[in-house]
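Please go through the sequence and fold tokens given here and tell me how the chain folds. Record follows.
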Amino acid sequence: MMSPDSDKTYDLSQAIFKLFSYFKPKHSFSDLKPTKIMVLMSIRHLVEENGYAVPSMICDELGLSKSSLTAILNEFEEQNFITREISKEDRRMLLLSLTEKAKAKICEHHSYMKKSISDLIDYLGEEDADKLTELIIKANNYFEKR
């Protein structure tokens, strides 16, 4: 077993943090932090998959606390990114919807990420890109099983 203070541990952690920093949008998204982008994308995903999204589903999906999510949703409502509506079937449920403004922001982000990943694949080449994908999937599987 490798010591937590080993050079390999340090090198890998630094490489991961540095790699993630390159995926932070630089210009048109500077007003939205990665967590907020993930919340918008989670709402979109949940609505597409279930027909609705409620705050507890987003907390479960992203591992956010209720208070953190509430603050983000309040800000999103002020910025006209979401609407909130009480469910007609179950008045305890608060249904979330994305506005067109939020959908456009997600499309911008998606285009940015797609270009970044495409450029990375071009740089690495198909074979190394496949190896990287395999290793990332393997690492995700490891952390999911912990």
